[in-house]
Design brief:
Length: 334
């Protein structure tokens, strides 16, 4: 078995910053409510028509990751692309990246695991490296969520949370001790309806949508049973982190940096407390970006690297929980 190493990191967020106060123009909310309940202060949203799409943002993050890894698109053997907000119903973003970057006709795989998308994508790429099938894989998480939100007061419980952006890593065959030590993936589909966007879907074909068009139909917008998701998240996050640590005979004190999916600052603080971890052991940047779903972990990883919070040899743990429900962790010797 070969080892896997993150050799390149990159991120991209659209220029436009939307503060909590900006949101009060659309809906009945307040900076105080959003900060107190979520920790979010601002997020980046595309300006419709500015050229940013889920795929193009993913490409921008990928270019940075390739540069960091000192590789070109021709060195890439495979692409794994995670998103819940693809540009098209099909095909997925992976093939768009293959085209836009000018990679060879390599395989492109799309991952539809929402907030856990990047954890699943990294775990998938790791298997291809470990078996020796591929040497360099681009793993991308990208989301354009702002254009699909209900910005009226009706949608405020969801709309204030989500941001746009992309993050990417290059996962390569390791020539030293660096490795992804293990991956831990879970799902519980009985909760699929607790956090979902139901339409478009094949139960609502185009003719039915046109015939029965109803501007009050909320099934086009994300539905989230926030309290319910919150309660499951604070159980599953610590559980899957401990599962990963125990599999490697590690304890929370051995973790140099925990990168939780940035879902809600209160969730991350709860996890930190439950695991008895110090402030410097946990990465939080939801304050600036909101919840960027599949992009949140690679954005946070890249930012942690840029800030010098990760160095080679560190134990870095990523963990996510979200729609599905799905959850997981990657235990990384950086
Ligand atoms: N501004 C002002 N008031 C609001 C807002 C808002 N933006 N949103 C909701 N409220 C009101 C509600 O109407 C409610 O009012 P009421 O008491 O008069 O009925 C009150 O605030 C409390 O609402 P709750 O929904 O109970 O608020 P809660 O404390 O649960 O916070 C939140 C909501 C932030 C969404 C929280 O539940 C949460 O973070 N949940 C988990 C999110 C998560 O982890 N998602 C998974 C990843 S996302 C993915 O996978 C796609």
């Amino acid at each position: 078995m070969y080892k896997s190493k993150i050799t390149g990191l990159g991120k991209y967020v659209p220029e436009r910053i939307v503060t909590n106060n900006d949101l009060t123009k659309y809906m009945d909310t307040s900076d105080e409510w959003i900060r107190e309940r979520t920790g979010i202060e601002e997020r980046h949203w595309v300006v419709p028509g500015d050229g940013n799409t889920t795929a193009t943002m993913g490409v921008k993050a990928a270019k940075q990751a390739l540069q960091h890894a000192n590789l070109t698109p021709k060195d890439i053997d495979f692409i794994v692309f995670a998103t819940l907000s693809p540009d098209y119903y099909f095909p997925g973003g992976g093939v768009q990246v293959q085209k836009m970057l000018g990679c060879d006709t390599v395989g492109a795989l799309d991952v539809r695991n929402q907030c856990s998308g990047f954890v699943y994508a990294l775990a998938t790429a790791d298997q291809f490296i470990k078996t020796g099938m591929y040497k360099n894989i681009l793993v991308i998480g990208s989301e354009l969520q702002s254009t699909g939100l209900d910005l009226s007061t009706r949608g405020r419980g969801v709309a204030v949370i989500f941001g746009d952006g992309a993050g990417a890593v290059v996962l390569s065959r390791s020539d030293d001790d660096s490795d992804i030590l293990s991956n831990h993936l879970h799902s519980e589909g009985k909760y699929a309806e607790e956090l979902t966007v139901k339409v478009p879907g094949n139960q609502n074909p185009p003719n039915k949508l046109v015939e029965n068009w109803d501007s009050e139909d909320l099934s086009y917008y994300p539905y989230m049973n926030g309290n319910y998701v919150f309660k499951h998240a604070v159980t599953r996050f610590p559980e899957v982190i401990m599962e990963g640590l125990q599999a490697n005979n590690l304890t929370p004190q051995d973790v140099d940096l925990l990168i939780p999916h940035q879902a809600n600052l209160r969730i991350s603080q709860f996890v930190q407390k439950k695991l008895g971890m110090k402030d410097e052991q946990i990465m939080n940047n939801i304050q600036k970006y909101g919840n960027t779903t599949a992009a949140s972990i690679p954005i946070a990883l890249t930012e942690a690297w840029e800030q010098g919070r990760i160095k080679r040899g560190d134990i870095v743990v990523t963990a996510a929980f979200g729609s599905g429900f799905t959850w997981g962790s990657n235990i990384i010797k950086f």
